[in-house]
Please model this.
Amino acid sequence: MIAELGHYALILALVVALVQGTLPLIGAQRRTPAWIAVARPAAILQAGLIGIAFLALTHAFVTSDFSVVNVAENSHSAKPMLYKISGVWGNHEGSMVLWVLILALYGLAVALFGRNLPPSLRARVLAVQALIAVGFLLFIILTSNPFERLSPAPLDGRGLNPLLQDPGLAFHPPMLYFGYVGFSMAFAFAIAALIEGRVDAAWARWVRPWTLAAWCFLTAGIALGSWWAYYELGWGGWWFWDPVENASFMPWLAGTALLHSAIVCEKRDTLKSWTILLAILTFSLSLLGTFLVRSGVLTSVHAFATDPERGVFILAFLVLVTGGALALFAVRAPGLAGGGLFAPISREGALVLNNLLLTVGCATVFLGTLYPLFLEIAGGGKVSVGGPYFNATFIPLMVPLVAFVPVGSMLPWKRGDLAGVLARLRFAGGVAGATALAVLALVEGTSLLAAGGVLLAAWLAAGVLTELAGRVQLLRVDAAESWRRLVRLPRASVGMSLAHLGVAVFVAGVTGSVAWHTEKVQTMRVGETVEVAGYQFTLDGVSEHRGPNYTATSGQFTVTRQGAPVTRLRPEKRIYPAENMPTTEAAIHSTAMRDLYAVLGDPAEDGAWTTRLYVNPLIAWIWFGCFMMVGGGLLSLSDRRHRVGAPVRQAVRAGVLGPAKA
Model:
């Protein structure tokens, strides 16, 4: 009965979304306040109905209702409760319900907290959101019913993919979806602005917090996925340029460009058409990621479904949404006149360079990800595009982008003095150079490329701190006054500095994990010792034990350094009987400077065991840097200017429509 209630709620949500997607649009065009007012209660009702459907599906998983096909295929009575709950979105059908729920929650947020928006603009934004929901609700109801019944019901289910039975994967997909779907808000604001034919500083101020929130979620989701791949898959790496990894990375790159472009649009009333186009492309790339994960056209450990019919539906929806938005852009964009002029050497010019490098980088990832698919469709056979291509094309674009961040942050608006800025950054350059030379001299095996990575990270960090020190007049006034100035700085400015510092930490982590990574693969007997990068790994024994829903073979390693004990590691090989699938559980000992990483492989015929042992310097800095970026974004989001919103456009005609005044 509860499953049927959930299915019925989805159908009702579709009806409400159809109303929400049509009446407010027509009302805004005809200047009919009553029809415009429909948008807000409809968004609230739609969110409530989809919430009921999601709760009904969650109830089916938690109670192990195996009469529901989705539960029978993706759950098991022996699973721990956390994985019963995460199993709700650990499959194609359930993940789509989560997708539309998050879409509805964003619409609910606009309905509840968007009172400072002009009613006509809010109505159009909510209508566009609803039309997106119509497409996905139709997709769920027609092709991916999560509440389909199974008769007779089996005594137990098949279980969830063991790779997904992990805390990291319990939280990684929702974070990604909040990012993916969050960019629908920027898209909806862009389409609403195109319909109105007006983009101004107030519009840019409204769209920035939604874009920033989506960017924070997507950054956290990608970081969690990378961390999961590192400790769960047992190959010692954190990024593989997997097609589905790239599918989340592309909207992140475009969304980062959108964030910076919106700043120019808000501050200088220029780059309007470009900002609108970026909003359209960012959400289109999010839809592309949804298509890649669910179409079966690309093989990946991350893929949810391999049903071509479902893929065709999503592809058609992607073409409709992107094509329709670009057609509207082509008609309306010529009327979006730019604002103030600026010199190439200026804050605006730096942000344009930022956008250029990010979008070209996104294009290289797009080409490398989809080229094998295009070639196969054209009859050119199967090819594989991997790390060498991306490292050779993408990284060279990011080096100047990172290097120019301190310079761009210190340039004034409209016109700047590059020589003056570089003079102010002399100390930062000295610190960066000294750091790189010290690493080159003191760390054995450091290449010039590794020293260059250290130089880049140190330059960015020192440059950001120099800019911040200048704003608080550090060493020019007493410490108490500098602290008061820091506290009074806008949170958005401090958040930007924190995010840029996070990039510096990330670059240092990538450099260390790539340049000084050490790996050894061998067979070991109990009692044998292998040395890796100055650490001695001794295999003390191998034993078996049972977990809540798996059996495990566990290795016990003692790690020493120059005779002093460091840690004990217990990697495992697990077998999940319900799914009849093995997993590898790496054992990791982390410090701020390095990870010790051990993996137990298969047994050999002579009683030895295959083992993989790694020493990964600075690798924890990668995820720490990512979450510094997220922290910077959240700090910026807490800025009062974002919470209060943009200046309300002064309306005419009973406060419904009319020209805006910022």
User: Anything to note?
Assistant: Residues 519-617 form one domain. The mean pLDDT is 89.
